[in-house]
Write a structure and sequence with these properties.
By secondary structure, the chain is an alpha+beta fold. The protein has eleven helices and 14 strands. It folds into two domains: 236 residues, Aminohydrolase, N-terminal nucleophile (Ntn) domain (Glutamine Phosphoribosylpyrophosphate, subunit 1, domain 1), CATH 3.60.20; 66 residues, no CATH class. The longest helix has 28 residues.
Length: 315
């Protein structure tokens, strides 16, 4: 399906990272889907949504609706919470439309009729839904396309007076994330294991002032690990950084190279000092990727072994 990881490094500094794999209406996978979007309601009030959904059409539809909703109600948006609540409602509405569209194409019935257990006949009278339909519906809800749509969720970084992280799910209003990070999606268990291991290296009194280069490296590594292990997760990571009220969006080229450098550092093919500098150069300062790549090969402990590692040989 997907993976989205987000982390707060300090009161006004954090980042969110996602993969780019999604599927179309025919359930074909493509590494072309954008999942991180910005919504602004003023110079100092904005949010970044990390959609967690394998249905690229649903993500696109929900994002357009969210932009329209913010534009129409901008005068009524006074803080981050009111902006967030509007986005959450759009997501819920878009999911319902997607569910109805899918069920009508498969069964000829909208979701509300399955919830009722009845459907209107030709004369308008309600009749019981055939048990065989219910069984197919239950299977789809448990492990099929319907489950993927209904399980759609989002992580949201909201910049107001401070930076906060929220989680939007199917069943709740936006939840303020208490921990410093959150991972969602089918790749969440793998991503979470990386982030948890990162936090285990720090004492609690440093959690409100995380080294942003190490924190961002952990986020990129968490998404990369999910891409390696989960078939429905993949592609070059999308990365957005929030620092002191400003959004930084690295290029695809720099994001791809950074993910390779982070993976190399995690397996000790590259020294950590170089990994930190490369993250700063590539992701924060838009450095020339070719220059950084040339330096990467110079700093590799064994060029041949590292090259084979990047090409998925067993080394």
């Amino acid at each position: 399906m997907t993976v989205v990881s987000a982390c707060k490094f300090s009161r006004n500094h954090g980042a969110i990272v996602s993969d780019e794999r999604g599927s179309d209406a025919d359930d074909k996978n493509y590494d072309i889907y954008q999942k991180l979007y910005e919504l602004k309601a003023g110079k100092k009030l904005f949010l970044i949504i990390g959609w967690c959904c394998s249905d690229g059409d649903l993500i696109y539809d929900a994002t357009i609706q969210a932009h329209d909703a913010v534009k129409k109600k901008q005068a009524a948006i006074s803080d981050g919470r009111s902006l967030l609540n509007g986005v959450a409602k759009v997501l819920m509405d878009a999911k319902q439309v997607a569910v109805d569209r899918y069920l009508k194409s498969k069964f000829g019935l909208e979701h509300k009729y399955f919830q009722m257990g009845k459907f209107p006949g030709e004369n308008g009278a309600l009749s019981d839904i055939d048990e065989s339909f219910f069984e197919l519906y239950k299977i789809d809800r448990k492990s099929g396309k319907l489950k993927e749509i209904l399980d759609s969720e989002a992580l949201v970084l909201v910049q107001d007076k401070t930076l906060n992280l929220f989680h939007i799910t199917e069943h709740t209003h936006p939840r303020l994330v208490e921990s410093r990070y959150e991972c969602v999606g089918s790749g969440a268990p793998e991503a979470d294991s990386v982030m948890y291991a990162f936090f285990k290296t720090m004492s609690r009194d440093t959690w409100d002032r995380i080294n942003p280069l190490r924190g961002l490296g952990a986020l990129v590594n968490s998404v990369g690990t999910a891409c390696d292990r989960i078939n429905s997760v993949g592609g070059t990571p999308y990365i957005k950084i929030v620092k002191n009220g400003q959004i930084i969006t690295p290029s695809e080229e720099n994001s791809h190279l950074a993910s390779e450098i982070v993976a190399g550092g995690a397996q000790r093919h590259l020294p950590q000092s170089f990994v930190d500098k490369a993250i700063d150069d590539l992701l924060y300062n838009a450095a020339d990727s070719q220059t950084v790549e040339d330096e990467m090969w110079k700093r590799a402990k064994n060029v041949r072994t590292f090259s084979r590692f990047l090409r998925d040989y067993r080394v």
